[in-house]
Amino acid sequence: MPTILATRADVLSPRMLRVFEELAGDWRRLDQRIDGLSGEIEALARQDQACSRLMTVPGIGPIISSAMVAAIGTGDVFSKGRDFGAWLGLVPKQISTGDRTILGKISRRGNRYLRVLFVQAAWVVLVRIKNWERYGLKSWIEAAKRRLHHNVLAIALANKLARIAWAVLAKGRAFELTRSDDADVRPA
Prior knowledge:
9 helices
């Protein structure tokens, strides 16, 4: 921005140049403040054992782990990961009539902030194709990619990550890939 303002002095009035410079200064101060707060959150998350365990789950970093621990503590309020995913609003609405069940859009109920964070985590995992194998998600993601739209896949993966994160909190153990006959992913 400073180079643009310096080269175009003939187009903008001196008053507008000052306004832009003040706004750029405000922007820099906000960036510094955000960096400082992010550093504090990261330091706190690394000191907390529950947050440290959550950060072993793919796509989950200090922000998501600290937000999840702040929202649900140890996860005792939910009896299973499916309930946590539903509480976040990462499951489809169901319309049932007779013997027919129709799945609609995601319910979007529950903690909006955490839901958004888990969806962002899912996109991060989807973009990093090289890590799929390491976390044991490759076969699941590839099968889901064949049958789901990429946005629906991100929501499904966010739900899967939320359920894994709940299991990590509830069982009190870090996420590890365990190989079994059905190649399922569980916290070890």
